[in-house]
Amino acid sequence: MAWLGAGVVVLLLLGLVSVAFGTRAVSLEDIVAALGGDAQGTAQAAVAKRIPRTVLAMIIGAALALSGTAMQAVTRNPLAEPGIMGVSGGASLAVVIGIAGFGLANPYSTMGVAVLGSAAVAVFVYTVGSLGRGGATPLKLTLAGAATGAACVSLVSAVLLPRVDIVRDFQFWQIGGVGGASWDRIATVAPVLLLGALVCLIVARGMNSLALGDELATGLGERVVRTRLLAGLGAVVLCGAATAAAGPIGFVGLVVPHACRLLVGPDHRWLLPASAIAGAALLTAADVLGRIVARPEEIDVGIITAVLGAPVFIWIVRRQRVRAL
Question: Which residues fall within 8 angstroms of residue 189, CB to CB, at 6 or more apart?
């Protein structure tokens, strides 16, 4: 409870920092005026645009962290994460095909296609990783996910190559970012992310049983297949919707669960809420950092998370030796 409370306080402080700092600094009076609905001045208008951006960064960060935590529980793989497992790559490919090939413009259709793409790649990676002796080992799942993700990136480039009219927009989207956020965009993605989060939280106790191994979990009365399917469904929905809204943002689902395990332990009834708070804080902080390090330009949040997450990825590989959780 203490760590959760501290996380909420840090998240609120980061939210204030995100509203106050950026390519243009604003005063406390401007922030109060913008919160009151006044967007007449330049500073107030800047604050009014930063508020939905901050909210979107928080919900996307929470969604990616929850998705990564659920994937690690389902696969018992310490390296499981939407980007590394290729799931976000599948969502990106599905979105690009839907827009470039079928002219999808409705945000709900785009989100639905992204979720289907995530689900298809998740099933494919788990199937490939389960082949051969030993079943779905962490090493085989990681290799299958990395190869599938690379293939999806190449296919995205192949689909976009003849469509020069939409290449520029997709280039920025592929990096991953929360710029251009609006309340309409948040209202579209928030219910879907909430549904995925609820599914994961409902099966939190079952995720604890999965950590003991399938045989022991079954002996304790846990319905392993149902728990794995529900947890995987929640992870796929969270990843697909978040990718459709903000592009493929990597490493949040890898870094956050491991950090939170050090603080609150492996019990998913505590780990999932802690990961959601920490993921929201991490992506908000990365967005603020991207706005201030290269003023007056911005660095997309997907680049910041990659720079922060790559060393953690290397540390986990060296520490865990790609063993199961």
Answer: 56, 59, 107, 111, 241, 242, 244, 245
